[in-house]
């Protein structure tokens, strides 16, 4: 089966602040989205890359060099949440993808993905029937707050066995499409924040493949400095 990348890039970056959506903010010399886009477009094992942007997006066209246009297509079908954007993107690909084709969903807000991480995911899932995701074992001591405005810790949550999810998350096209459709029909699309959650709702168990701290998500303004540090450093 072939491998395709699907990059949701239709968010507004509310937590980041700023005048333009965070995926278009300059980071280590180029718009954030371009980092991940170039990695997937340049990867020999990725057949083609699709980027989901909002219908009103006025930035993406300026990013698309002639070389990128050979390897990347733009889907102007972004929705109100990340999962809507992914689901709409999958809907738009119904004619182009086969059921067994793999889809690697990757956040535009994770500029630190690289060829080695993509290879690690592909290799780990080559014989898999469900799929899986990059993730990192949790290192922090975790507290459950009591929900008060000035919260107190109720208890410590054992971190053994806990992982922090990253992207890419890779599943067979038909399986992911079905999982998201089912989540939508059950009105649960809004409660999930990644693709693996929808697969879990089907009772399946996505494989956890070790990611990298380099592959952090840029959520808050301060995350950009750390992302730049990694992007400017030596590359694996
Ligand atoms: N995303 C999307 N469509 C949405 C919301 C998010 O395609 N309606 C994309 C973002 O562009 C990003 C990825 O999903 O690449 C992860 O989402 P997140 O980090 O939450 O980005 P934003 O939603 O833009 O940020 P915020 O939640 O702070 O507004
Ligand atoms: Mg968001």
TrEMBL record:
Catalytic activity entry: 2-C-methyl-D-erythritol 4-phosphate + CTP + H(+) = 4-CDP-2-C-methyl-D-erythritol + diphosphate
Keyword Transferase in record: yes
Keyword Nucleotidyltransferase carried by entry: yes
Marked site (Positions MEP for the nucleophilic attack) residue numbers: 159, 217
InterPro entries assigned to the protein according to its UniProt record, in alphabetical order: IspD, IspD/TarI, IspD/TarI_cytidylyltransf_bact, ISPD_synthase_CS, Nucleotide-diphossugar_trans
GO molecular function per UniProt: 2-C-methyl-D-erythritol 4-phosphate cytidylyltransferase activity
Functional pathway: Isoprenoid biosynthesis; isopentenyl diphosphate biosynthesis via DXP pathway; isopentenyl diphosphate from 1-deoxy-D-xylulose 5-phosphate: step 2/6
Entry superkingdom: Bacteria
Record EC number: 2.7.7.60
GO biological process assignments: isopentenyl diphosphate biosynthetic process, methylerythritol 4-phosphate pathway
Enzyme class: transferase
Residues annotated as site: Transition state stabilizer: 15, 22
Family: Belongs to the IspD/TarI cytidylyltransferase family. IspD subfamily.
Biological role stated in the UniProt entry: Catalyzes the formation of 4-diphosphocytidyl-2-C-methyl-D-erythritol from CTP and 2-C-methyl-D-erythritol 4-phosphate (MEP).
Listed name of the protein: 2-C-methyl-D-erythritol 4-phosphate cytidylyltransferase
Lineage per the UniProt record: Bacteria, Pseudomonadati, Pseudomonadota, Betaproteobacteria, Burkholderiales
Gene: ispD
């Amino acid at each position: 089966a072939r491998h395709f990348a699907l990059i949701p890039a239709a968010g507004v970056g509310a937590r980041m602040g700023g005048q333009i959506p965070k995926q278009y903010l300059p980071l280590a010399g180029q718009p954030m989205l371009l980092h991940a886009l170039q990695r997937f477009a340049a990867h020999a094992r990725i057949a083609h890359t699709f980027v989901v942007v909002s219908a009103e997006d006025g930035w993406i066209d300026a990013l698309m060099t002639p070389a990128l246009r050979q390897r990347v297509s733009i889907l102007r079908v972004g929705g109100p949440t990340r999962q809507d954007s992914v689901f709409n993107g999958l809907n738009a690909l119904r004619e182009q993808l086969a059921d067994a084709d793999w889809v690697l969903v990757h956040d535009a807000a994770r500029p630190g993905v690289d060829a080695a991480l993509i290879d690690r995911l592909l290799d780990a899932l080559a014989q898999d029937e469900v799929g899986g995701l990059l993730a990192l074992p949790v290192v922090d001591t975790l507290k459950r707050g009591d929900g008060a405005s000035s919260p107190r810790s109720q208890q410590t949550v054992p971190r053994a066995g806990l992982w922090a999810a990253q992207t890419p998350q890779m599943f067979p096209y038909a399986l992911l499409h079905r999982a998201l459709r089912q989540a939508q029909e059950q009105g649960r699309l809004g409660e999930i924040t990644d693709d693996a959650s929808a697969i879990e709702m089907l009772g399946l168990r996505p494989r956890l493949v070790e990611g990298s701290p380099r592959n952090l998500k840029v959520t808050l303004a301060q995350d950009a400095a750390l992302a730049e540090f990694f992007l400017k450093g030596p590359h694996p």
